[in-house]
Amino acid sequence: MPKIDPKKADELLNTLSKKLNVPPQTLKKQLEEGKFDAALNSMGKAESEKFNMIVKNPKLMEKFISTPQAQALYKKLTGGK
User: Fold this and answer.
1) C-alpha torsion sign, points 65, 30, 11, 73
2) Rounded Cα gap, residues 27 and 7, in angstroms
3) Which of 7, 17, 41, 79 pairs as cysteine with 24 (C-beta 3.0–4.6 A)?
4) What percentage of the chain exceeds 70 in pLDDT?
5) What counts of helices (H) and strands (E) characterise the chain?
6) How far is CA 13 from CA 17, 45, 59, 67, in A?
7) Range scoring the smallest mean pLDDT among 1-10, 23-32, 68-77
């Protein structure tokens, strides 16, 4: 799994927190605890089921984050940094 620079991770967290309208620390705590309530609440049922399937399977997660779409989303959310 690719390593993410902590600074870039913070930038991504801040961007996601704005998009989800959730304070960054709340979002970070949920993610560290393996909870994805903020993200799931902003998705439809089918999307949230797919999301849960991916995050609960390390191999699927690794495959997901290595896709060009995920890399492009990361770049978009972090302003291309």
Assistant:
1) positive
2) 16
3) 17
4) 86
5) 6, 0
6) 6, 23, 23, 20
7) 1-10
Identify which has the larger pLDDT, 3 or 49: 49
Number of residues written out for the chain: 81
Q: Please report whether residue 57 resides in a domain.
A: yes
For residue 15, what are the contacts with CB-CB under 8 A and spacing of at least 6?
A: 77, 78
What domain range is 51 assigned to?
6-76
pTM for this one? Answer: 0.48
**Interhelix angle for 45-55 vs 58-65, to 10°?**
110
3-state secondary structure 32-69: HCCCCHHHHHCCCHHHHHHHHHHHCCHHHHHHHHCCHH
Flag whether 81 is in a domain: no
